[in-house]
Design goal:
- With 200 residues, the chain is an all-alpha fold.
- It has one domain.
- The chain has eight helices and no strands.
- Helix 2 packs parallel to helix 8, helix 4 packs antiparallel against helix 5 and helix 5 packs parallel to helix 6.
- Keywords: Membrane, Transmembrane, Transmembrane helix.
Amino acid sequence: MANSKKIRLAGVASITGGLIQIVLGILLSTGMDPDIMPYGQIAYSLSVLLLSGGLLGLLWLKALGRGKWLLVIPLLGFVSQEIAHGIIFYYWDNTVNQPFKPIGAMLVAVGMVACGIATIRAKVWSGWSKVAPLLIGVYFFLGPLIALIVTKEPNFVLIMMWGLFWANLGFAIISNAKASEIRFTNDINKGVAPYDTFKD
């Protein structure tokens, strides 16, 4: 298992990425046109990189148990979204027709539903944190996707508000990192834990 500092840093990255998306959502809600804000795309691209910290936190805390391979699905979604950003940056135009961003979003959503179910079944996390990964995937289908089906247009504000649930995952990672460190310390005192489980 990675050391507790790295795990907490992964949680902070997920929180930061989520907050960036929330801020972008607030700016969009004030009337900023997403088609003429390439700098917003840079911020969104950065947020996607930071959100990958959430996946690392889940991996390092072994939250999915044997289902850790499922993390590949949302990771591929992030890669797809960054390919989309690369195309946008190359043409410096958010109106370029490319499929990578919606495909990426769908992969992330489906992947996080799968990861969320695996987290609940693994029973490594408890309380509110065990549903944090699942909420990320479920929100996409109940929010942005339904809005897209009804209005035939993407609702960028709802998409950006996805960041709330990624920030929540970050807090769950930090909370469980602290809990794991406490359990490790207690086990060390009892003489039953390997000394390389956590390294500060």
